[in-house]
């Protein structure tokens, strides 16, 4: 019976987390870009999995209730997210419009590699300033995990972390197999365009919800 409960909690965490992270978002697009370039891919995957596990764990431990009871905190997080998403989206669209064909080539021998610290810092900002991260991992997944009994809460968190590992591992693997596609400059323009539009749409969606949070 106890084994069945462990399996059920792990599977619940795995399926709930996987259903939420399989979407086009700032974090996924950034990992995709780094994987295509072949730069610090494992570190990016490790960061994403670890941050998901920590944020979901915080939600299970009670941060979801804290955010629900502190509307001003949620409001400030929302405004920070809006500003970040607008800036990120605008920069992606600017990159799409201004990049020359020669500079858009993805050949790793022609693209100057970024340092590990710079890559992880950017990924951390993308992760922690995106309000969807808190809505999905802390509030939604964390609240569901908090309903598990006793130590089964942490089995739920483990299942969610495994889902994150599977998704980002598959994403990076697929992206590295797509290098031939991204060897064409137009592919980078399309990716930047999709990124820019998606970020601006997310910013609008978050901004629409701010009055309710206040």
TrEMBL record:
<feature type="transmembrane region" description="Helical">
    <location>
        <begin position="73"/>
        <end position="94"/>
    </location>
</feature>
<feature type="transmembrane region" description="Helical">
    <location>
        <begin position="6"/>
        <end position="32"/>
    </location>
</feature>
<keyword id="KW-0812">Transmembrane</keyword>
<keyword id="KW-0472">Membrane</keyword>
<feature type="transmembrane region" description="Helical">
    <location>
        <begin position="154"/>
        <end position="174"/>
    </location>
</feature>
<feature type="transmembrane region" description="Helical">
    <location>
        <begin position="44"/>
        <end position="67"/>
    </location>
</feature>
<protein>
    <submittedName>
        <fullName>LysE family transporter</fullName>
    </submittedName>
</protein>
<dbReference type="Pfam" id="PF01810">
    <property type="entry name" value="LysE"/>
</dbReference>
<keyword id="KW-1133">Transmembrane helix</keyword>
<feature type="transmembrane region" description="Helical">
    <location>
        <begin position="186"/>
        <end position="207"/>
    </location>
</feature>
<feature type="transmembrane region" description="Helical">
    <location>
        <begin position="115"/>
        <end position="134"/>
    </location>
</feature>
<dbReference type="InterPro" id="IPR001123">
    <property type="entry name" value="LeuE-type"/>
</dbReference>
<keyword id="KW-1003">Cell membrane</keyword>
